[in-house]
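ok new one. same drill as before - structure tokens go in, u give me an amino acid for every spot. 132 of them this time. try not to just spam alanines like last time pls lmao
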């Protein structure tokens, strides 16, 4: 399953031409995609117009929506954050630590466009989608 981060969805809905958006375009309808509940909230809160909100909500909820945070993920996320910090790697956002940890625990591939995930990939084995 491929977990798509808000960094990609936001660029997708804003019509930005980035490598991750192109990868998402190719995956739509061809790969099993997963939306996290926290990603759903992050993406939808950015829409100003009701119509755009409804269109995005319809698309995003057409994929399975996963509950990302629970006690196990929270504790492991803190462990991962601390492990990276001990290696001198700083993650700027707690939500990115939670998403990366969720993906690692559940063997999901992460499609993202956020440098915070690079540390998880390099040091902790997060699997990410390669941009084609």
């Amino acid at each position: 399953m491929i977990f798509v981060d808000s960094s990609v969805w936001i660029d997708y809905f804003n019509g930005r031409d980035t490598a991750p958006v192109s990868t998402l375009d190719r995956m739509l309808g061809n790969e099993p995609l997963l939306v996290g509940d926290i990603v759903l909230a992050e993406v939808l809160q950015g829409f100003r117009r009701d119509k755009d909100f409804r269109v995005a909500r319809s698309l995003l909820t057409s994929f399975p929506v996963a509950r990302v945070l629970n006690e196990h993920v929270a504790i492991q996320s803190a462990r991962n954050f601390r492990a990276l910090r001990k290696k001198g790697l700083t993650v700027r956002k707690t939500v990115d630590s939670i998403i990366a940890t969720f993906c690692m625990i559940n063997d999901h591939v992460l499609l993202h466009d956020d440098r915070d995930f690079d540390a998880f990939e390099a040091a902790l084995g997060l699997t990410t989608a390669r941009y084609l």
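The chain has one domain: 2-124. and btw Residues 2-124 form a domain with the Rossmann fold fold (CATH 3.40.50.1010).
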